Amino acid sequence: MGASEAVSHAAKIGQVADETGISIDTIRFYEKQGLLKRSPRTEGGFRLFGAGDIETLKFVRKAQELGFSLNQIRELLILRTDHVPACSHVKELLDQKLTAVEQKITELRSLELSLKRALRKCKRELKMTAEGHENCCPVLEEITRTSRREAKHEN
Questions:
Q1: What are phi and psi of 65, to 5 degrees?
Q2: Mean pLDDT confidence for 59-85
Q3: Which of 1, 3, 75, 154 has the greatest CB tally within 10 Å of its CB?
Q4: Angular region, 40: left φ>0, alpha ψ -120 to 50, beta rest
Q5: pLDDT grade for 1, boundaries at 50, 70 and 90
Q6: What is the C-alpha separation between 137 and 132, in angstroms, rounded?
Q7: 86-130 pLDDT, tens per residue?
Q8: What angle in degrees, to the nearest 10, is found between the helix axes of 138-154 and 87-128?
Q9: What distances in angstroms separate CA 99 from CA 71, 106, 109, 148, 153, one per listed residue?
Q10: CA-CA distance, 115 to 19, in Å (whole number)?
Q11: Of 32-36, 42-46, 101-105, where does mean pLDDT reach its minimum?
């Protein structure tokens, strides 16, 4: 296949960005990071991407949506490209990712409860004081007390 034939079957970076929903800068970044092979260029210096490159970019985007890091995605791309039996390794990565997500959910639920308690304190305090005459915010007092306690324990 000649150079002109390759050009007719290839897309420029702007077209690829539109098709994949990935910004031009991000595509260039992925190329620099080795997630995408270096693309051939036209005589004018424009990058040319084939269907395989577009498929790889969509794979990277989907893997990121699942929460995989760029290093993990690089690893997944290698497994995918080498066509090696990788299910157990991918399962391990998914197990790790799921554990991290579950831990984050636990932390967020704890944060949610703390915020709800703080909001209830604020509402109670605002009901008990005349409008515009709040003496002190109970939440700010609580944060101050907690930070002072933690500072004493660090010393």
A1: -60, -30
A2: 87
A3: 75
A4: beta
A5: very low
A6: 12
A7: 788 888 888 999 999 999 999 999 999 988 988 888 888 777 765
A8: 120
A9: 18, 11, 15, 33, 31
A10: 41
A11: 42-46
Total count of residues recorded for the chain: 155
In this structure, are residues 49 and 37 in contact, taking their beta carbons and an 8 Å threshold? no
Distances (CA, A) of 2 to 9, 44, 49, 119: 11, 17, 16, 68
User: According to the model, what pLDDT value does residue 71 have?
Assistant: 92
16 residue type, one letter? V
3-state secondary structure at position 47: strand
- CATH code of 3-154, in short, is 1.10.1660.10
**What is the pLDDT, as a whole number, of residue 33?**
92
Shortest CA distance to 27 belongs to which of 5, 42, 43, 11? 11
